[in-house]
Design a protein that fits this description.
The protein is of the alpha+beta class and 331 residues long. The protein has 11 helices and 9 strands. α6 packs across α7 and α9 runs antiparallel to α10.
Amino acid sequence: MNSDQYDHFQQQFDPDWRHETARRKPGKARSPKKSEQQIIQELADETIGLEGGFNTTYTPARYEAGFLRDSTRPFFDQELITDILAQVKGGKEASVYRCAAHELTGKKLLAAKVYRPRQFRNLRNDKMYREGRNIIKADGRPAKKSDHRLMRALNKKSNFGVQVSHTSWLMHEFQTLYQLHKAGASVPEPLATSDNAILMDYVGDERRAAPTLNEIGLASGEAEALFHKVIHNITLMLERGWIHGDLSAYNILYWEGDITLIDFPQVADCAGNSQAHFILQRDVTRVCAYFAGQGVRCDAQSITRQLWQHYSPVDEQDRLADWSRQEYDEE
């Protein structure tokens, strides 16, 4: 895999990269001017491609063909994928497709998560998750509150404002995946984004995608270890000030004895969201409900309380007082 191929994503989402390269001042490369004939030929090639259709192994339904083509074309152009093989998950907010990876990626299969067009999406209570979060632009950078045109569009929910909100929703998921994967969390590695899709690691094989936990029963002896791994991943998120927001057995993949957490667009800000404790408790309760059914002894309220006391953004003196009260209660 070409290590330079994804540098632009590292620039967008990795603060360490920006720090390390702050003093670099590379010279500006000049591209040779194209001839009129070259420009005409490129336009002709593009037109032929658009009129010729979108030929993949997977045959999309009429309603999805247009947005699937537009959403994944950048991944073809960047030589990240060579084919769309099958749809492996369909949902109200997004669909996931198994793709043949380009040999330059060093991978065999990749997953393209394509958000459905805004008019078909049904993001319930999304306002609750957006509280305390920055608006992230398509370049991965937070929008400035001094950008009055953008803020006015968001408040008025104009077409431009809705598109900005949609882009921010997608970019929050990409950025969360990027940082969590870098921290060693059990999440797919994200490779690229387009205006409406995220390309990431695929979990499964050529025949089927990894099932979610709610679809299976765990073998005797493995449930306990996997439960602790899920709690460890919740802890990794809290250390970065994040809560998944929709964690349950429906959003945890199981493959070859291991788990992978997915679906992060609703990630909540632990410090800035007034309902953060409720959101965390709901995540932990859902996880515990599944694993209790697999024979694991777990107390959702106790786990939530300990996590919140240790990782919530409260004053250190208040945190020490909480621990003291807990120890007193246990005595």
